[in-house]
User: What shape does this take?
Amino acid sequence: MDNENPTILNASDLPSRRKQPKRVLSSGLSNGATGLLSSVAPSTYSNDPFSTASAPDLLSGDDDDIDDIDSSIDYIDEQEIYDLISTISDPEHPLSLGELAVVNLPHIKVTDNPDHSAMSHVLVEITPTITHCSLATVIGLGIRVRLERALPPRFRVDVRIREGTHSTADQVNKQLNDKERVAAACENESLMAVLKKMLETCK
Assistant: This one.
């Protein structure tokens, strides 16, 4: 192991909204969808359920319709992203990425535009347990796969190593955010087996 004694947080102390009813998706992997990561994590949303495209015309002057739209828009925030990825298993330790503080709520940024006025965006900065962690790319890819699977198609996902926490952060960041490299990685059966194992613990 790279780090036999990592910092471990108590799972019950991690920030979570899971006591409330959620629309969290199944973590199972299948091959029934299309897209860059479809072989690993197909999107459950064939259509964006949070889209207002089919909503009444905002220019119609009907205040009741506008009120209905406002109440139906469901924004995705940092806490929801954290809940999606904090239970991913570390590929090296029998603990979650949340328990190892690899993912942290303050290091997640979300810009959500359900009305499609602009591209919605999620940035997750991860903190490897040690600066020379050899599995940083695998962990980052697991997070990307999880979010690509769980989020509506309006979202662009960026996963990066937090500055100053890894000796080859620039190289890892390029790999995690290069579509061609990610697609090639998703064709590697051995890597897919590792990712599937990591995502089995997602709630």
In short: The first helix runs from residue 63 to 72.
